[in-house]
Amino acid sequence: MNEQTSSPAPAAPDSTTGAHPGFAGAPGVAGESRLVGDHPGFAEARQAAAAIAEATGVPEHRIAVVLGSGWGGTGALLGEEVAAVPLADVPGFHAPQVPGHSAVIRSVRLPDGTHALVFGSRTHFYESRSAQDVAHTVRTAAAAGASVVVLTNGCGGLDPAIAPGTPVVISDHINLTGATPLVGATFVDLTDLYSPRIRAIAREVDPSLTEGVYVQFSGPQYETPAEVRMARTLGGDLVGMSTALDAIAARHAGLEVFGISLVTNPGAGISETPLSHAEVVEAGRAAGPRISRLLAEIVGRI
User: E strands within the chain?
Assistant: First the structure.
């Protein structure tokens, strides 16, 4: 059943601030859940966070990391693994359908003594899931106490100068799915959705990093050459099938968002080579050790 049609609309935004009761705003006190209010999906996220806390023995996690194609090696470089929980054992999650994605959630002790919650996979919109299902990962992170979420993905590149295997920091996105994880009069400002603070940290770690606008299509088919041309005309630099919906839900849940993509292939029509998922997996495998070290260092400075 789709919550977007079955759930009551949330309360209207505050008339003086424009804030919705389900939006916690800027990150607050460490360890304090950002998930406030009763927006659809929040109760399920709190149940999932409680299950994770019980299974890991860690009552709160400071940061969450969502690993997309090519980024799977990052978790092992962040710190000491405390516990690993199968995704299917946590309420609201499902085993991933995409080859190359891990089916576990890991609790990792960071060098500063706090903990990171590392999701080995995400729920994709194209898996016949709703936008509410997609949002469950970041909402669970917020309910678990996280103040920051790191979103990663493998994507197509629209600039021929950016070769496959290149990481690109996400500066903004264009959501072409026609969907949103928000319900009712939930007005959330997305002006600085992708944290300028953390993007600056990333450039300190690697001054050669470039930034780009990520365009999310619904998938699962790859984009046509005409759609790639449209994305470039709209101002896009990267195309993929994730991240934008996650980021919207994360901002609504009060999380600071950092996004980074791995260009795994040129967009359709930019190269004469037909697109394939095997190409995506291979590009991620080849770049994996290098980009995992990069991301681990960025997370270590957040």
Answer: 63-66, 80-86, 104-109, 115-119, 148-157, 166-175, 210-216, 238-240, 256-266
